[in-house]
């Protein structure tokens, strides 16, 4: 057996294990997806006039999302992609905490932090999507990762003129796409009882 065949076998084994987790815990993925969709819509609607209060609100949204990711990752620590799920959760929790404890340090600084978050999360999701391939919904995770990278690029290009309102809009869109991907995974793997 050559190296390529060995890698293909390993990838299929990881995909089978991941599929097992999706089938077994589809309700959790569906619930998490719904939560992210709701949080995303809140982030889109609320921060029209970006202020310190909105930065703190976004910090709580991101922190809660990070706690949900970390909790799920720790609950299913044997799941393939555990490290990436945990990384995304820790990244969200740390960024949310920074939004909450340092809002006065400036919206522009926080906007750059969220831009970094979009870029790192995008890279992590793209990597995770390729690990999930060809499982159903892997393209949704890939698309979500690509949109995260695109949002980071748009914020950098439009800096600083549009950072006041773009940040909340992009965060909300990003969360809605993630929620849709997770909900689709949950619904696809729904087990009839």
Automatic annotation (TrEMBL):
Keywords: Membrane, Transmembrane, Transmembrane helix
Any one Pfam family match given in the protein's UniProt record, by short name: DUF308
GO annotation, cellular component aspect: plasma membrane
InterPro entries hit by this protein: Acid_resist_chaperone_HdeD (IPR052712), DUF308_memb (IPR005325)
Superkingdom, natural source: Bacteria
Coiled-coil regions, chain positions: none
Transmembrane segment boundaries: 28-46, 52-70, 82-100, 106-128, 140-159, 165-187
Xref: PANTHER family: PROTEIN HDED
Protein name (record): HdeD family acid-resistance protein
Source lineage: Bacteria, Pseudomonadati, Pseudomonadota, Gammaproteobacteria, Methylococcales
